[in-house]
Every structure is written in C-alpha cells, then in structure tokens.
Amino acid sequence: MYTGxxxxxxxxxxxxxxxxxxxxxxxxxxxxxxxGYTDGNRKLYLFTLISIHLQLVIGLILYFISPKVxxxxxxxxxxxxxxxxxxxxxxxxxxxxxxxxxRSKRATDALTKxxxxxxxxxxxxxxxxxxxxWPFRGLGAGMF
Length: 144
What we know:
By secondary structure, this protein is mainly alpha-helical. Helix content is about 75%, strand content about 0%. The protein has four helices and no strands. The chain has helices spanning about 1-30, 40-65, 75-105, 110-130. Helix 1 (about 1-30) packs antiparallel against helix 2, helix 1 (about 1-30) packs antiparallel against helix 4 (about 110-130) and helix 3 packs antiparallel against helix 4. The longest helix is centred in the N-terminal third of the chain and has 30 residues, at about 1-30. It is elongated. The chain starts with a helix and ends in a 13-residue tail after the last helix.
C-alpha cells in the first residue's frame, strides 16, 4: 500500500504542477490586459484546486504510514525534511491556494478575480516548488 500511494503521489504531482502553472500563467495574462473571466478560467482554477487537495489527502495518508516520518530522527536531514519541512510547506501552499480560489470566487469583477488567482496561486506554486524533494536537494535516498 505504501509503495502504491507513494507512486501515485509522485505521479499526480506532475498533473498538479502542470495545472498550477497553467492557472498562474492564464490568470497573469488576463490580469495584465486581456481582462475577462470565462467559464474555462473558472474550471481550470477549480481543477487545479481539486488536484492540489487530492495531493493533500494522499500526502496525509503517506505521512502517517511512511517510515521516513520519525520525530526521533530529527538530526538526520532526510527525516527532518519529511517529518516537518515538506508537510509544513505544502500545507501553507495549499492553504494559500484555497484562500486565493475562495476570495476570487467572491470577487465581483474579472480583474480582481484574476489578480487574486495570480497572487495566491503564484505564491503557492513557489512554495510547492521549494518543498518538492528534488534529486539535487541532497536528501540521500530521495523518495524511496
């Protein structure tokens, strides 16, 4: 079960990142002149939010069954990363993305909707990119 969830979490990461990048670029373009908020924009932002929340659910399950989450091993950077840093950064990013979507949904004009998505999704994207266990981070075994 652990390996299957880990592969699912790792694979869905690319879909979530692709949707997040597409959302930020779309909202930025619309905010910077091509004003308007279409039903396609709303669906893209919603699918992005859903994919991010799906990653959260899978990640929380992994957090509680992972052998890499061990509070007694905090001096080891691999264990510290998965026990504290990864989950904290991702939770902050997901909260920001959720706030951005909710606030844009309540906004009345298209420009404000696009601005809120650009800012909150953009900050969330940067945090997510910083918290992904990339191979160059020097975490030893990486995800396995």
